[in-house]
Amino acid sequence: MKVSLCTLNYSPELTGIGKYNGEMCPWLSLRGDHVRVLCAPPYYPEWQVHKGYSGGWYSVSEQEGVQVTRCPLYVPKTPTTLKRLLHLASFSISSSLALFKGIFKKPEVVIVVEPTLFVVPSVLLFCKVTGAKSVLHIQDYEVDAMFGLGMGGKLSGLLSRFAFGVECWLMSKFDAVSTISLSMMDKAREKGVSDDQLIFFPNWSDTDFVSPAVDGSALRHSWGVKESEKVVLYSGNIGAKQGLELVIEAAKRYISRTEVKFFVVGAGAYVKQLQALSYDAGLTNITFKPLQAWEDVPAMLSMADVHLVIQRKGAADAVLPSKLTNILSAGGNAVVTAESDTELGRLAEQYPGIYTCVEPEDIDAFCEGLDVELGKTGTNTVARKYAEENLNKDAILSRFRENLLNLVGKEITEN
């Protein structure tokens, strides 16, 4: 099967969409599929093109059996709404040119990952010309996320009606639409996608690599954590959609509990602002660390007593946090901020003990949840069992590949 993937994010990005794309494509290649990736140079979550890459011109390389074409784009140092739109538009133009340059390669299926919708018109046109099947894979509903977080400004009403209308029309043109949660599938139906088009393709975890069996004591020691102390960990993107001011407020309340230490691990557009808030408050119980190498992630997850998954109101069903899969796989105890009627809220109700779910942006509820989780010790067996049964990497990717083979009319037994 010949597959092309058009996406902003790809390996070697360590978090989010880039990590999943960077695992999926080599997995497909190992099974005999010919995979071509059109992506940006790595820049996320730091919002800075990584050393050794250029945002100004194209490059082509082979990574783990996958042909990777890096397309130039504009990466703002301080992303505002307008700058984000320019950022997305620049990738749309450069990746569209690269896509049509490979028109005679004739892929059988083209997958485009949302974000970004900007490249969708070019992908749909390409598929119409070549006869390739088109798949939209939704990791984030970027239109919902933008307006749900109030990024539309004074014209949000007019802009949102136009943006949602265009989004629905574009989604209806795909041969298949996949997304990562049941609530996000429901949202796709609300936007006019039929059940025949829908594919459930959740994010996964390498449950053998990320497991409760990993010993994190050496990392705890290297980070200066005493055996008697409790580690509260947030790890991932540090951006506007998370609402990480909540961690600062919680650290203020726990300042007298000297055994509780907060760690914020990651990078992103909001990291300097968050550090400034901590500094201005004179907090000595919170430490900032850069993103950790993937091989160190299991130990980092193992060393934490409580994990934090934090989002603002309005984001929970538009953006399902990818960090949660590995927390569950590690058997971690976690506090998750999400409304009760969202996917994350329903999951907590369906699997009691999997994590403590509290209302977003509510510091009292957050600290109550944190107290509950700090009182727990050992592996969260509910979380680990859920990961083993629902988040296994090979099982999820095998099902998705079967969906693709069915879409292009090939036998599922194909190597």
TrEMBL record:
Residue span, Glycosyltransferase subfamily 4-like N-terminal domain: 15-204
UniProt keyword terms in alphabetical order: Transferase
Pfam families with a match to the protein in the record: Glyco_trans_4_4, Glycos_transf_1
An MF annotation (GO) of this entry: glycosyltransferase activity
Domain spans labelled Glycosyl transferase family: 220-371
Name of the protein described by the UniProt record: Colanic acid biosynthesis glycosyl transferase WcaI
